[in-house]
Amino acid sequence: MFSGAHVIIHSRDAEADRAFFRDVLHYPHVDAGHGWLIFKLPPAEIAVHPAEEPQHEFYFMCDDVEAAVAELTAKGVEFTHPVTDARWGRLTRFRLPGGGEVGMYEPRHERATEL
Question: Could you tell me which residue ranges the VOC domain spans (predicted)?
Fold first, then answer.
């Protein structure tokens, strides 16, 4: 039925965040017109968690969180939380140039991307 998913990150500085995805993360992209870049993401998963107030989060997954932190830090990325351990993985958060934050984690659980 569905052929993919489209994630939207709202930003105070969309141009800066688009440049980050293009120039720092080197994600392939298409230009939908007038510099409106749409990026190809790695395989993704979706999980549903219980909550009193619905909200949405975005996490990048990686195979080695320490190596990813080191590589991104060398590129000037600001991490807003130290790497911590959770039952489901090792996680951290970093700031996008537009002021928003996204998570990054090394999963300990089986990955649905492998299905």
Answer: 3-107
| Among candidate residues 49, 57, 47, the one with its CA nearest the CA of residue 109 | 47
The verdict on pTM exceeding 0.90 is: no
Question: Could you tell me the end-to-end alpha-carbon distance of the chain, in angstroms, rounded to an integer?
Answer: 17
For residue 7, being part of any structural domain is answered with no
Domain assignment present for 38: yes
**DSSP classification of residue 78:** P
29-62 per-position pLDDT tens digit = 999 998 899 999 999 999 998 999 888 889 999 9
Q: What are phi and psi of 86, to 5 degrees?
A: -125, 165
**Token reading at 84:** 């911590």
Q: Identify the H or E element spanning 79.
A: strand 79-86
* Domain coverage including residue 99: 14-114
CATH number of 21's domain: 3.10.180.10
